[in-house]
Model the fold of this input.
Amino acid sequence: MSESSQQVYAARRCTAEEAVRLIKPGSHVFVGSACATPRTLARALEGLNPPPADLELIHFITNGALPTDADGRVRTHYRHRTFFAVNELRQAVRQGAAEYVPVSIAQVPELMRRGRLRVDVALVQVSPPDEFGYVSLGVSVDVTAAALECAKLVIAEVNPAMPFTMGYSTVHLSRIDHFVEVDTPLPEFTHPATGEEAVQRIARYVASIIDDGSTLQIGLGRIPNEALKYLADRRDLGIHSDVITDAVLPLLERGIVTGRLKSQQRGKVVTSLAFGTRRLFGIAGRNPLFSFQPMEAVCDPQTIAAQHKMVSVTQVFAIDLTGQACADQFGGELYGGVAAQGEFLRGAAQSRGGKPILCLAATTDDGETSRIRTQLLVGEAVTVARADVHYVVTEYGVAYLFGKSVRERAIALIEIAHPKFRAELLEQAMALGYLEPGQTLQSMRPYPVEDERRPALRNGLAVMLRPARASDASGIRDLFFKLPEEDVYTRFFRRVRSLSAEDIRRLCNFNYEHEVGFVAVSGPREHEVIVGQCCYFVNPTSNLAETAFLVDPAWQGSGLGSAMQQHMTEHARARGVRGFVAEILARNARMIALARRGSGDVQVEREDDTVYVTQRF
Done:
């Protein structure tokens, strides 16, 4: 460090008590965020006697900034304004000592610069200065950079435990008015280990949506972070996220996160905030792989949209049947905040190949209340508008809502609700006119993602075979109208010009006990086109199952029919079914040939114009 910088530093060094006594009554004081919370300064400010009158403390996520008594009650001399209510701040809001501001954290820097959010003083924590007279904001650039820009008085804790991070995290000594030297470990954060099957199942569903080469934003929620554990077989993932946690480290160490396909800042882990342990802080320090940037830069919607296959994963607390989601309240109590969910969800939606994902447990922790509701409750504000919702994931499956009608949304969400609440939700949805009278839902089990297959077809055609869902009704109708008249007759044994609601339900609404159905879909999950359908119905007396098929004419001859038959055979055999039977019109040579190719003992008999095929496994 140059001699002039050393002189500046020495002249401005003081104790925490001396520094906070310079704060004038009526000031608006910004307090640094998360694992960079300046706790020594915060404690010194609370310890002033008498305390400065009418101070307002402004903060994003803080860790240990508010003193509490033995009963957990917050004891503070000042008013607090927060953008994220966690830990003791929830208690402070309940007590009336803090006010919660539901605003995107990405918009806060502009509010500061315009003076609409006044910042007179900034209390922050920084690294020791380097040889050029710069300190680093370390693991929390977030909105701190804007607060330093706007504050008239800047007081910094200088802590050797704070890593010097790369990117846009540096501040020259001349910008800081007073330095308070501390030598304490940074507060750490870890997600509690979860053995909950529901959380793990949701995490696996979320991971199943994420493709190779995706760029990830993973928030602080426990479920999104758990999902990272199930990406071990992916390649060339990237990170562009408002916050990172220790959950990214295994992916970096295994070479899964490379950033090689990112369209901007290729190869870099771009973030604004590291919320984790000393291990994460140590790896991020002076590591050019990491680029710490101000929150408004990381969360710029155009920057997010420009990323390659941008994936945003947000944990919410409740969602109604139209898709409105609440992410910062539950039962009237605050949990977290708006953060930058809106920017990332909309940015991911505009990204080529991007995927905005909401995830939630289907019920409250006690299992007594469904988090999928007919309507959000009083005290559950809409955080994510229904027009912005794409994927919704629970432990019972995945629903895709974007561009869907209210009816389609309602049935898709009821399918991923807890089984014990589905009948009630159906009844309420019909009462509100969301669903047609008489709508039923046969399956009451989790969506069996393990039954999905991607068979190899001729000419390199790509298709996925998956269990049929009641929400496939529109796709089944579209497939029907692609079939030539002769195919319709040979499938239904009658002249059918259209399908009734009951006909469609029989083709996609199965109980998966003695009725099982699959659809073949092409295209991405968010724009699936049903190109085939197959099903089997088990006769409990004989334990033989009757089969039926529909194949889009454009896909006939591709091997799709054989792939569907093989998949159904494997599925039925695993469940102990003895075999298949099929009743086929004699002129339907293609279907007879398909049935003859079945594995096991295949017997074919003809009676008049009908061929009966029995396949015993």
The CA atoms of residues 56 and 79 lie 5 Å apart. The longest helix spans residues 560-574. The domain at 3-181 is CATH 3.40.1080.10 (Glutaconate Coenzyme A-transferase).
